[in-house]
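Aminoglycoside phosphotransferase: structure, please.
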Amino acid sequence: MWATVDAVDLRTQPRAELVARAEQALGARLMSERGVCKRRSLGLPTDRDTWVRLSVAPAEAAAERCGLEATAALPRQVRHPWWYQGTCWRDGDLLVRVEETELVTEPVICSGGVVTTEPELGQGWWQHLVEALTALSTVPTSRVATPHTRPITQQRVTSTIQAVFPEVETTVAEWTVAHADVSWVNLTAPGCRILDWEDFGLAPRGWDAATLWVNSLAAPALAEQVQQVFAADLESRTGQLSQLHACAELITAGEDYAGPLAAPVRNAADGLVTALNRREP
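Here you go.
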């Protein structure tokens, strides 16, 4: 169907054949009119009140990015959608995955763009998020997190940070299991659930808190709340590296991409560089 993964854009390309094959494989009708479509993935509810995610990725990445069946090993405290079944097939050099999970009906906190005002989240919501990420961090696994579809390694941390801040020593001392994409578009309220688990795995300590924090910087009170709630991780040296990595990615992407995050990210990064250079590696 597609020559390369770069040619895939499910937002503009016909999807009927893909949906029909998924329906046949799962034995369910997919409700296309209520689908959420991204460039290389498509999410749809079914006629049996479940959720199906279709995704397209390079077949060569299968060893690094297995399917959502890996979430079956996670405890309920992690607040992830329950995984039911899945299948996949090869299309040339690409791998198409179809996975059926629990349908989460709670709305996401932000459906897109940057959060610029503080959402109304009670203390109980924050406590549930902390409990979920704490439970996740101790799950035994050798799986490596793949934020933005690429494995997070020491080399990636170093190259990303030192491309912007070459004077910073970037050795990561602590690795824990992370969701790897904890942002406001993947969190629900008023009930706290965490969505989109395809990237979870080992990452530097504080990775999830740093991701949420950097995506909150356009709402200063919210960013401060994240800092307070996850202080133990974010105040560690590895946690500060995780924050600086998140900042460096946005700085490298440019102001047009960062939007209202651009100025606060640069200011926060300068403070992190100073703090890291004062600490012992």
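Notes: The beta strands are 36-37, 41-45, 50-58, 83-91, 94-102, 175-178, 201-204.
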